[in-house]
Amino acid sequence: MTFNRLYIAAVLLFTLCIYTVKASMVQRTDDEPTTENVDASATSENTEASATSDATVNSDNAVADNASSDTEEASESKKASKKKSSKAKKVVGAQKMSKEADAVQAALAVVLHKYSTQADTIANELSARFKEDADMQTAIARAYFRNNEREKTRRYLDKAFNIDESFSPAYILKGDMYGEWDVDSACLWFDKAIAVDSLNPIPYVKYATVMSRKDMDKAKEKLEELRLAVPDYNVDIEIAMLYNKQGNDAEAAAAMANVDPNTLTMNQLIQFVQNCYWSQDDMKCMELCLVGCNRFPQNKGFDRLYFWSATRQNMYAEALEHGKIWFEDAKDSVNSVDYYSLGSCYLGLSRVDEAFETYAKIPSCTDYFVPQMDGQIRQTLNRRVEALKGEHRYKEALELYRIFMDKYPSSDKAYMLYQYSTIYREWQDGLQGDEKLSVINQMFKVYDQLETEYPNWENLHYVLYTHARWTYSYFDPENTQCLAEPYYQKLYDYCVSREEQTDQLKSMEIEACRYLASVAYFTRHDLKTARVWWNRILNIDPEDETALKALKTIKK
Fold first, then answer.
1. 511 belongs to a structural domain
2. Cystine design at 521: which of 79, 368, 511, 530 (Cβ 3.0–4.6 Å)?
3. CA nearest 125: which of 145, 150, 104?
4. Domain span at residue 526?
5. Which residues, including other chains, have CB under 8 Å from residue 12's CB and lie 6 or more apart?
6. Handedness of CA 62, 64, 66, 68 (dihedral sign)
7. DSSP for residue 49
8. Nearest to 505 by CA among 543, 451, 548, 541
9. Domains: count for the chain
10. Most confident of the following: 88-97, 99-108, 113-122
């Protein structure tokens, strides 16, 4: 019972399809070619260059998109179509014929995918009913092609050729069959399609698309032939699409440079905008975005890319205007680049708290750009801190970094604290007396926090070494109070605890032993403890002259 129901459903589907096609053929006249607004996504996406069966079908749609206008311009185009030359009529007519037959091949392809036996029966019936129609035979062949049934594709293509040897779509499909794996053979069939219908843009574009995988210059040459054959066709768009498939945004943008953006479909304009953004031509990107905002106000993606580009150009007020529009519309589509751009605008406008509150949302994003944005935030912070330090505005630099640490989630808090301490270190360089010592003490407070909260941080020896040495040099140079002793002891303990004993660690360990031996010998007159420290130096460097001399003195 189930089988019969499926079979009847399939028959009904194709019966409906056939009558729809017949009706459309009756209604259509050569005097009134219609302009369709087809999906341009096949040309706007940066897909692989290989000519798979699905990409082949989309390529037809992409060419039709190039030949058509946008929806709001369709009525004007329809009026103008009556005045077109016979050349233009032939191009539009060929596309219309393919679209009508495409209704059959699309439906048959769907049924073939799930119910191949029933679909074979219906295909045979269709072929018999339209035995003098090359277009219908080609439509059936393409349905089988989309389902990777090559032998049946060839069978119906042969029928199409027997009916009409000059039917261009049949040659195009033959080229598609080779396009996946044999560039030269595919292009040979596309050339045959051009020979029988030189005004049909599809075989030129398909030739160029396939050939671009092998020889970009030859691909462009074929598109230049199209420019001569069909002067009204926008060849520059197709050249740009070839570069898009290769991921070459700069060349794609260059190819589109002479194209009037007001003639582009929405998807084509989006692609052009993206080419300019990723090739870092921000001013051109912003110019095109404004065109997009005016022509396609429903698509807030143009506001988004204006927002990104203006932020990159430090045009923060203008960027925020478009960013606000995007954030209000985007909802769940906001990504890390959006948050980075918004945070950078706030930072550029000195709205520091808002900036880092916005930046703090980036680590919770899941898009591809999160690591990149995290790195850029740190670069942005460092550039701003360096600028403030260069103007001797150390307090502002410290405050900026403190807000960053408080608000931005990070797995390397120890490193951030250390970087924070370096601002104090640079600040004290230009100071004298008590003012200098005050800044050093503030730096030591950061060191204390690091030593307490991150005792196993892999770079803690830099902190311990500076803490010990600067305490000795600035606060107890005569070593009368032994103020540096606890820090040198921490330094020694840390160094010996490391599994990998680098030369730097050994050098710091020797200095810590030397200081602690000196305290034991000269301040506390503890010869036993002093001897232990000197011997530890010799364990690291048996030829250390200071340790050898000190031990000789102790023995005497």
1. yes
2. 530
3. 104
4. 458-556
5. none
6. negative
7. S
8. 541
9. 1
10. 113-122
Share of the chain above pLDDT 90, in %: 58
Contact in structure between 240 and 275 (CB atoms under 8 Å) = yes
Which residue has 């059959």 as its token pair?
Answer: 104
Tokens of 247: 């991921």
Residues ≥6 apart with Cβ < 8 Å to 384 = 347, 400
Distance of CA 433 to the CA centre of its chain: 53
Q: Which residues of 192-211 are buried (b: 16+ CB within 10 A; e: fewer)?
A: bbbeebbbbbbbbbbbbbbb
Q: Evaluate whether 275 touches 252 at the Cβ level (below 8 Å).
A: yes
* Residues 76-99: tens digit of each pLDDT: 333 333 333 333 333 333 434 456
In a domain, 354, yes or no: no
d(CA 267, CA 327): 21
Amino acid letter for position 423? I
The pLDDT score that the predictor gives to residue 78 is 36
pLDDT digits (tens, 9 = 90+) for 12-41: 455 445 544 444 444 333 333 322 322 323
Q: Is residue 45 part of a domain?
A: no
CATH code where residue 465 lies: 1.25.40.10
If we measure between CA atoms, which residue out of 248, 254, 175, 247 comes closest to residue 211?
175
- Ranking 46-55, 68-77, 444-453 by mean pLDDT, the lowest is 46-55
10 Å Cβ neighbour count for 189?
Answer: 23
* Number of Cβ within a 10 Å radius of residue 291: 17
The SS3 of residue 138 is helix
Q: Does residue 301 belong to any structural domain of this protein?
A: no
Biggest distance spanned by C-alpha atoms of the chain: 122
Contacts of 145 (CB under 8 A, 6+ apart): 53, 56, 153, 173, 176, 177
Q: Is the pLDDT of residue 100 over 80?
A: no
DSSP 35: -
State how far the Cα of 459 lies from the Cα of 495, in Å rounded to an integer: 11
556-to-204, 527, 530, 552, 553 alpha-carbon distances in Å = 100, 12, 14, 7, 5
